[in-house]
Amino acid sequence: VGVCISSRRSGLSRALRCDRALNPAMSDASTTPAEAAPAATDSVGRSTSARYNETLSSRTMCAYGFFRLPISGYDLTVRPARTAVYIEALNQSILTHAMIVSCCKSVDFLLGFLVGTTSDNVSTRWGRRKPWVVVCFPFAIVSMFLLVTPFPFSGDAVFSDSDDFPCGEIEPDSATACPALEQCLVEMIANGTLPAHNVSSVESSNPPAPAALSVWFALFYFAYYFFSWTCTMIPYDALGMELTSDYSKRVSLFSVRVVFQFLGYAVPNAVGLVLSNIFPTNIIAVYAYTALVLGIVSLAALLVLGFGVSERPEAKTGQGNEVPAVVAVRRALCNWPYCIYLFIKFPISLVSLLPVNLMSFFLRYGMKMEDWASLYFTLVLVILFASLLGTPLVWYLTRRFGKREVLMYVSGACCPFFFAFFFVPPQSFPTAVIYIAGVFVGLLTVVMFVVLDSMLADIIDYDALHTGKRSEGVYTVAETNLQQFIEVIGGVVPLLLMSAVGFENNGGCECGCGVACDEAYMRWKCPGDIGYSCDGQSTFDSPPLFGEVGRQAPCVDQGSDAVVWIIRAFLFALSGVCLLLVCLGAKIYPITKAAHSAILDATESLAAGGEATDPLTGKAVVRSAASHAQLRREHFSARELSLSSHWLKTQLSGRLLLWLGAFIAILAGMAASGGEARQYIVAIGAICCSALFVLVPWDAARLQVLLKMSRAERAVGPSAEEKDNSARS
Questions:
Q1: Which H, E and C letters describe 694-726, residue by residue?
Q2: Which terminus in the chain has less CB density within 10 A, N or C?
Q3: Integer Cα distance of 703 and 447 in angstroms
Q4: Could you tell me which residues come within 8 angstroms of residue 352 by beta carbon, excluding any fewer than 6 positions away?
């Protein structure tokens, strides 16, 4: 709110001073942005000015940011629901789950590049970005609901009724009925209808998940990520990068978006906190009703974005960049500030991801909490509250001291605490310390989304200086694909390691610890221990009717301590190492506010037909000619162009055969493997295939271009820009 008010009070006057400085001929009478002279355009209506929309209104910022609310809600619903619903409640093998996640991510890794480059290269009269969002986001809404609510396999989990079971007709939560229930249970145990509380083996009514559940999960998990994160978020993020060119306005824009983002994180957790009290032992019902709420909010956000945000006029000319995907990616990889950005983005994203994926495991199996769900939702609300309070502070500090300084010092301040948390024994972990860790995660998440997103927009301006093209889609797709890879590292690798050392779903229990038992009078049902209780389905405080009254629920215990050590290592130790890397990357990041202003000046100088110097390197900027022949040449490095045609063809063909051979070998290995090891091999093989899914089409496209190049094109030596690109790369 403070950002929006500030922009309304002071944004206009600052913009008018800037406009008068750039255009002295501007009269005092024509001082509103709506009446200002339009920017110069080329023959197809694209702006030749590097500065645009520096008076971005608070209404536009809020309309753009509001769409992030349901996306964030989806993110913080799907990630914990994957383990809570599929692994714990429906008994899906943790290896099968990890295998499916890695396979889906591997395929989506390639599709992201196609979406990003297509978004840059195809322009319509409605723009380049919004058509993707409007068409694909409704499919994401449906996919998300079906993903977290696998109703064909959940049975009566959402509407549970235990009256059909022995003694089910007696109300378990009635104080007057408790003696009658206890007497009924004693009789049923005596005649063999129900097992004794300490029976060594229990006939399970919760068999391993069927193959159809894995098919359901694979289908809708892939559909959710493809339609939401690939087809919706890549164009949406690109849209934000091109709404304004002002260095400080970008901080304000992404600060407003972060506010809505954390409000979006709060929605499923606030709803989940309420529903976890209504359904304390039924986690499937909690996520099912949460998905309904998010679906309604999503439709409202889509309408606000569609009618409240307008793309740049040049995005509606019908003229895209017309740059091949390989060339666009090669240009991005030659942008060395972007390489530093990726070096920062990877570890800080991992820090924000690990608590969501692993904290539920830590609370249950590390801190031995039967009622882990309520503390988990409360912790996430603490993280969100800290994030909302921290957003104005980060916004102010970033505008006052600079982006890289805030990034470096905040990360450095949080790093020692994560290392300290690693050495605290989990069962001695005070709840207050959990909340302190949540505050640190909240601040780091604010820094990641406010500072890093505005840094990426500045990096895209630096790319436009060298290429003369706006390629927001390519840069955001690389970031999104990086996020997908981080999901594999932070979500799949820990599960594989936990499984390797003996992890058991729900501690080896059929129900309990948030997984609803069919019988309302059971708190848990485990081999060797059944927790018969008067209020089993309604509270975790109800003492067991048989056996030791204060005993610990078996569903919070893993047979191997190594499982908890792996959780602690990823959750705390790895996070501390990642923050050290963030500090190093922030220290060498080169684009300051002054450097960014110089980048825009140099871009406008080139657009006006003059010369320009790269503010970061001090070298003259030489752009490649915008011709089809030059685009074909940019598929290759200067070193590759210096090779003979025959040798370059041989090299590319050999690389392509190598990638194809490796791909076939991995597939054969996955098919030939058997037993429990097969799922490990498939999961790890899918991770390796994610790289091959990019390398195979990459070299295939380059070989195809080489075969089409004429002898004259190949004979021309590398241009100055190509040499500069190779040096920067």
A1: HHHHHHHHHHHHHHHCCHHHHHCCCCHHHHHHH
A2: N
A3: 42
A4: 441, 444, 445, 448
Amino acid occupying residue 615: P
**323, 95 in Cβ contact below 8 A?**
no
CA-wise closest residue to 537 among 154, 107, 160, 62? 160
Q: Please name the residues in contact with 674: beta carbons below 8 A apart, sequence gap of 6 or more.
A: none
What's the Rg (C-alpha) of the chain?
28
Q: How far is CA 178 from CA 123, 147, 182, 511, in A?
A: 69, 39, 6, 22
For residue 182, give both structure tokens.
């206890």
- Scan for tokens 């093989």, then name that residue: 685
Identity of the amino acid at 610:
G
Token pair in block for residue 171 = 């109300």
What does the pLDDT look like over 98-141, one tens digit per residue?
Answer: 778 877 877 777 788 788 878 887 778 888 889 999 999 999 99
Residues ≥6 apart with Cβ < 8 Å to 705:
324, 326, 632, 635
Alpha-carbon gap, residue 85 to 287, rounded angstroms: 8
Neighbours of 608 (CB within 10 A): 11
Q: What does the DSSP 8-state code read for residue 40?
A: P
pLDDT tens track for 643-685:
888 888 999 999 999 999 998 888 888 777 766 566 667 767 7
Averaged pLDDT, 12-23: 36
Of residues 704 and 560, more confidence is placed in: 704
Q: Which helix (H) or strand (E) holds 35?
A: none
What's the confidence (pLDDT) of residue 724?
55
Token digits of residue 246: 């002002």
Q: What φ, ψ does residue 589 adopt, rounded to 5°?
A: -65, 130
Q: Taking the alpha carbons of 584, 405, 338, 660 in that order, is the dihedral positive or negative?
A: positive
Closest CA to 135 of 150, 146, 148, 124: 124
d(CA 360, CA 87): 12
- So what's the pLDDT on residue 486? 76
The C-alpha atoms of residue 83 and residue 91 are separated, in whole angstroms, by: 10
Q: Are strands 529-532 and 522-526 parallel, antiparallel or unpaired?
A: antiparallel
Q: Which two tokens stand for residue 298?
A: 């999503």
What does the H/E/C string look like for 499-537?
Answer: HHCCCCHHHHCCEECCECCCCCCEEEEECCEEEEECCCC
Which 8-state DSSP code applies to residue 454? H
Task: Note the residue count of the chain.
Answer: 729
Containing H/E element for 131? Answer: helix 130-148
Answer for the pair 490, 353: CB distance below 8 angstroms, yes or no: yes
Query: Are 248 and 399 within 8 A, CB to CB?
Result: yes
DSSP 8-state assignment for residue 584: H
Q: Which residue has the tokens 């793309």?
A: 311
45 within 8 A of 314, measured Cβ to Cβ: yes
Structure tokens, 244: 């304004």
| Residues 258 and 383 sit within 8 Å (Cβ to Cβ) | no
Residue 258 CA to residue 66 CA, distance in Å, equals: 9
Please give the structure tokens belonging to residue 161: 């009724």
Rounded-to-10 torsion of CA 464, 468, 469, 475: -30
Which pair of tokens denotes residue 453? Answer: 């997103």
Which candidate, 106, 247, 85, places its Cα nearest to that of 155?
Answer: 85
> What pTM was computed for the model?
0.71
Cα–Cα distances in angstroms (integers) from residue 551 to residues 181, 201, 276, 501, in the given order = 21, 19, 23, 26
How many whole angstroms separate alpha carbon 606 and alpha carbon 208?
A: 65
> How many CA atoms, within 13 angstroms, populate the side-chain half-sphere of residue 621?
26
Q: Is the distance from CB of 349 to CB of 486 less than 8 angstroms? A: yes
